[in-house]
């Protein structure tokens, strides 16, 4: 997967080898290579243009890091841009306030929609959420049978009314049934066509109107590249999607679809299909995909390490931020990383006078707390990390982070309020006052 794209990008780094630093003139060849690489990977043209221009701005604005060559730094910048284009963090499936959560599956025929319906049901079942699958594709009789067979295989019930019933009516009754049976999530498989067609869109729109889904997931075949971009655009414009499932990522996907969907629709890819089996579904993590596209783990680590060292030199800046109470979650995460690089928390704490009396138990508890904080912060968007106040005012953001990190909404709430408390305390400490720190980030 993504092999060709990775090879092509390799050519871009080469253009910068042997240079002392990135400059307006020497970067042009490298950017041209990136552009070609993406176009050959079948990424949508507008997406490519924006991508290249962002990389250019970032590369020219990047500080020189000692110990890092310009080509290595360029790899890192492209990596970060790949992550940004794909959406930064994994966005989990929406959950309705009151059951059932209704998920509407949309997409063309042959993209893997029916398979994805079953895969999603199995995924949710593993999370202890009960499911009902609804078969509304009455045009292809085999489609209903296919869903029934899959349902048996994964032990998830299927609601159907045969192939003479009206698809809208099937969907409506399916949701009613889920409600009556106390089912958590109902996933509606819909009819696909080989191409976008007015009747299919009209039917989908009516089903959406009727069942008011919490999610409309567009199933996109990752092998289709440019076509996927057009498809996403049309579906989003006419139906309004809330996310996508990218299928057949186990095949020889060139990468185009993975990079276009989010930019085109503003909606995240939530899952990827990585095989024909029902188990072959994974949550979509932009960071992992970006790393796979580049396949340059060692360079990325090297630049990160060097950046961290430079950050140490930035300690003064950090202090200023603290004094002005501008310290944000990004800074906090940096500090956590530094702590980790320096060894275990226990080791460090023991070096601090007065802290050496902490028991191993207390130290272990501290480390667990820090890990919790870290995974919650990692589920925040860049914007949220920079502006923690966004989180104190938005329960839906806190809920999303809770789901993304696997903690409770109240944990996220506590992290945010503790953080704000810590920030003002640090500010006071910086001014020479030392308030107590009891209970900070504790259980
Ligand atoms: P639908 O017409 O959109 O409902 O598509 P189906 O669910 O019937 O899938 C079409 C074909 O794609 C089937 O042969 C599936 O086994 C295959 N398929 C679906 N998802 C994946 C995937 O993630 N990887 C691979 N390799 N094949 C898949």
UniProtKB/TrEMBL annotation:
Q: Which amino acids does the record list as binding GTP?
A: 107-114, 189-193, 247-250
Q: Does the keyword Transport apply?
A: no
Q: What transmembrane ranges does the database entry give?
A: none
List the PROSITE patterns: SRP54
Among the entry's GO cellular component annotations, what is one?
signal recognition particle
Reactions catalysed? GTP + H2O = GDP + phosphate + H(+)
Q: What is its main location?
A: cytoplasm
Q: What class of enzyme is it?
A: hydrolase
Q: Which UniProt keywords apply?
A: Cytoplasm, GTP-binding, Hydrolase, Nucleotide-binding, Ribonucleoprotein, RNA-binding, Signal recognition particle
The record ties this protein, via HAMAP family, to: SRP54
Family assignment?
Answer: Belongs to the GTP-binding SRP family. SRP54 subfamily.
Q: Report the protein name in the record.
A: Signal recognition particle protein
Q: Gene encoding it?
A: ffh
